[in-house]
Amino acid sequence: MSPARPADLKAERKAEVIAVRSIARPSPKEAEDAVRVLLRWAGDDPDREGLLGTPERLVRAFDEWFSGYGVDPIDLLQRTFEETDGYDEMVVLRDIRFESHCEHHIAPIIGRAHVAYLPRKRVVGISKLARLVDVYAKRLQIQEKMTAQIANTINEVLNPIGVAVVIEAAHHCMTTRGIHKASATMVTSRMLGAFRTDPSTRREFLAMIGNTASAQPSTV
Ligand SMILES: [Zn+2]
Predict the structure, then answer these.
(1) Where in the chain is the domain with CATH 1.10.286.10?
(2) 107 CA distance to ligand 1 centroid (A)?
(3) What phi, psi does 66 have (nearest 5°)?
(4) What percentage of the chain has pLDDT greater than the value 90?
């Protein structure tokens, strides 16, 4: 993947926001009715006692699982700090656990993200990096897109010397259905700036995240 130009990113994000806003949100009642249809599709009776509250609970769970649509990732990173006393070393936040859902099956994607950047001038509160991962995780996703979105957003807002994002995750659409490969994890990465062009920077980052990608596939 070649890094997109900032202008492209802004246009892309604008189109995304417009697309999401233009979708009329159904009422909770409509959403609950849809769940009742799926319960019948599964072969059960939505009117039996144990399932009576399920549509309401699932609709509320959706609010949490997909809360990322309500947060603007650019706004989230907007508050940056410039007084860094000349700190120009790598900032790495590793092992950020996340839960997402694949856009093909709405099945969980459970994994960890490692995020790094080389500040040019501006740094951001470290918890914001974890929040950024969540904003994109709490949407319907494919892992490749999520990896690129996180890296591109940091690149756009902080304008750093480089950004690196590595994500390793288990896809439940693959572990619990389909080909049932329970221990397989998928690893994706997006390297921008110095992480892309300078092998020693990339090596330093990979050493800092401890090559977890290949070492412990079963711990995610
Ligand atoms: Zn899937």
Answers:
(1) 16-65
(2) 6
(3) -115, 30
(4) 69
Q: What is the pLDDT of residues 117-154, one digit of tens each?
A: 999 988 898 899 999 999 999 999 999 999 999 999 99
The confidence score (pLDDT) of residue 180 equals: 78
Residues around the ion ligand 1 (C-beta < 5 A): 102, 104-105, 173
The set of catalytic residues is 102-105, 143, 171, 173
Domain 16-65 matching CATH 1.10.286.10: the answer reads yes
Fold (CATH) for 66-215: GTP Cyclohydrolase I, domain 2 (3.30.1130)
Tens digits of per-residue pLDDT, 60-107? 999 999 999 999 999 999 887 776 777 779 999 999 999 999 999 999
**Cα 98 to middle of ligand 1, angstroms:** 16
